[in-house]
Structure formats: C-alpha cells, structure tokens
Design a protein that fits this description.
The protein is an alpha/beta fold. The chain has a single domain (16-278), classed as TIM Barrel, CATH 3.20.20.70. Helices cover 32% and strands 19% of the residues. It has 13 helices and eleven strands. It has helices spanning 35-41, 48-60, 79-88, 105-111, 127-134, 139-153, 167-170, 173-182, 198-201, 203-206, 210-220, 300-305, 316-320; strands at 16-20, 65-69, 92-97, 117-121, 158-165, 187-192, 228-232, 254-262, 265-273, 280-281, 298-299. The chain has a nine-stranded mixed β-sheet with strand order 7-6-5-4-3-2-1-8-9. The protein has a two-stranded antiparallel sheet with strand order 10-11. Helix 4 (105-111) links the parallel strand 3 (92-97) and strand 4 (117-121). It is globular, with a radius of gyration of 19 Å. The chain starts with 15 loop residues before the first strand and ends with a helix. Bound molecules: iron/sulfur cluster. Residues 235-237, 282, 285-286, 289, 291-292, 295, 297-298, 311, 313-314 line the site of iron/sulfur cluster.
C-alpha cells in the first residue's frame, strides 16, 4: 500500500532520491565535495540490505527518480542490482560518474538496460587539463569513453555532463562545453566550485572571482550548440541575458540518503532539501533584489573571503523582462 508522500514547505512533493552508494573513488579531484565524508565514512560499507530498504521505502512514498552518487558509485559490487531494483520499483535511474566501470563494454552491457541517465564528470577539453584536476592519469580517456559507450549501447539513454569550474580550468571552459556538446551530451551543467570537502580546503586557491564568472558566461553559451546548458551555484544576476540558464530555476527537491555522524554513532539517513541554497547566502546587496528567494545568492565562503560588488540586484521591472 502506498504511503503519504513527503510534502515541502511550499507544497512541493518529494520525487527525487540521491543515494550515496559508496564512499570510495579511484580519483583524487582537487575540488571533491565528498572528500571529508569519504575519509570519515569509508569504513562503513553501504550494504545491499540498506540499499534495498532505502529504495523500497522511498518508492512507497512516491519517489520516482533515483540518482546514484558516491564516491564513484559504479564500483559498488551491487551497482547493477541497485539499478535493476529501482527499475522494478518504477523509478527513472541516473548516475553521477567519472566513468570508472561504464567505460568497460562488458560492464556497460550489464548496466545500460537499467540506466536512463548519466551525469559524467568532464573537467577540461584535454587530458592535460582534466587529469591535472582529477590527479589520476587516464581519467579523461576513461570518462569520454564511458560517455560514448553508454550512448552506443542505449539509444534512449540521456547523456549529461557535469564540469566543475575552478581557476585552473576557467579559461578552458568554452572548449570543455564544446567538447561535451560534440560528444552528444543532452545537458551540460557548469558547476561553480562548492565550498565543501576538498573544495573548502582549497577554496582560496580555486574559486573563480565573480567578475571573471560574469565575463565567461557569454563566451560559454554559444559553444553549447545542441545541449541544454545550466549554471549551478552562479548568482542569477551574473548571468545577464542568459539568466534563464540558472540552475536555481530548474531544480527539484530531493532527499539525499547518506552516512551521517552523531555523537557516539553513525547512521544511514535522509537529508531533505527543498531548495538549492546549500552553502549559499545573501549579501547586503541581495536585500532589495527582486530575485531573492528564487536565486540562492553566493557561496558562504566566497562572501567571507572577498567583496561581492559584482552582484547586481534586480528591480521588479528587470525580473519581469
Ligand atoms: S543580488 Fe543576490 S539575490 Fe539578487 S540575483 Fe544577485 S545574488 Fe541573487
């Protein structure tokens, strides 16, 4: 019997489950937002019993989309079983991956019949740029092969790309987007560096200044010729005429199921997010902005470290235009 769905403060219905399937990864990305949690929770495997209970519980409460993340989720020994069970429960399935296992045709042949979408991590237009950020030689080759293999094996598969924007790859961003587009990505998410995990540890060295972000946007947009482009973690007012590409406008509530630390114990539990405002704050400038409440502002660490004069609060007339 189906149970009552989770309802958010503005009447939103929770339809999306993000499941952290593993806390290990073969890469060592300089900006990894999960770096601290991976170090903390690596000794706690996510067992098949936990996975199956999580999927069944959430399906019963109306969750329709499973996104599997990690670490690198494809290395979990029950990865394909997780996808298979989700499909049996009527869910749409997606994975966030750097391509570790999906680049292997034998593995992809087992997984692809149950996988609807993939968000592949591509952080540069060349092996030199990408591998310097993942700190593992061959990473660029593996993730581009995984994307191509997935597309070949399932014509209905939705291939997407996530590229994390940091100072070392900022000048390459237009070419990275062009490459993702040419590889057949349907959606390209440009993710501004989030101050979490290694991304927090290295934030001062890696974060792109707001002024540079604003200047990059018009260079990047025309390079996505077929793909839909989204900017995650970028203040709405920096996007100018491309503000409709703000990910803040295209975001679904989600429950993230992961290990969490409590005094004297750890628990595998759900964290409920009803807006994309994690780690983001409003500045004084945002106070009079017509987009406050839709746009989630700037990252908290950025506002602590640097001036935010580049923000450009919008009047009600600008919002309507
Ligand atoms: S001024 Fe603040 S709330 Fe308004 S669009 Fe810019 S960052 Fe967002």
């Amino acid at each position: 019997m189906s149970e009552t769905p989770w309802i958010g403060p503005r009447g939103q219905v929770m339809r999306r489950l993000e499941l952290h399937l593993t806390y290990t990864c073969p890469e060592r990305c300089v900006f990894c937002s999960e770096d601290h949690r991976m170090a903390r929770f690596k000794p706690y495997p996510v067992t098949w019993g936990r996975v199956a209970t999580t999927l069944r519980t959430h399906a019963a409460r109306g969750v329709q989309h499973l996104h599997i993340t990690g670490g690198e989720p494809s290395i979990h020994p029950r990865f394909v079983d997780t996808l298979r069970l989700a499909k049996r429960l009527g869910m749409r399935t997606s994975v966030g991956s750097i391509g570790t296992m999906l680049q292997r045709p034998d593995f992809a042949a087992r997984a692809m019949p149950f996988l609807d979408e993939g968000l592949f991590s591509l952080h540069g237009p060349t092996a030199e740029v990408h591998d310097a950020l993942t700190r593992r030689p061959g990473s660029f080759e593996r993730v581009t092969r995984a994307l191509s293999t997935a597309r070949e094996m399932n014509p209905d598969f939705l291939p997407c790309v996530n590229t994390v924007l940091v100072r070392p790859n900022a000048a390459h961003l237009p070419d990275t987007v062009a490459l993702a587009d040419s590889l057949g990505a349907s959606l390209i998410v440009v993710s501004n560096l989030t101050p979490e995990g290694a991304g927090l540890d290295n934030y001062e060295a890696l974060a792109v200044p707001l002024e540079a972000l604003r200047a990059l946007v018009p260079q990047v947009v025309p390079r996505a010729r077929r793909a839909i482009l989204r900017f995650f973690g970028v203040p709405y007012c920096l996007l100018g005429e491309h503000a409709a590409l703000s990910n803040d406008l295209h975001w679904d509530p989600r429950v993230t199921v992961e290990w969490a630390a409590h005094p004297g114990r750890v628990a595998f539990e759900g964290v409920y997010s009803w807006d994309p405002g994690r780690k983001r704050v409003y500045t004084d400038a945002c106070g009079g902005c017509a987009m406050k409440g839709v746009c989630m502002g700037v990252f908290d660490r950025y506002a602590e470290l640097w001036p935010t004069d580049a923000l450009n609060p919008l009047s009600p007339a600008q919002e309507a235009s």
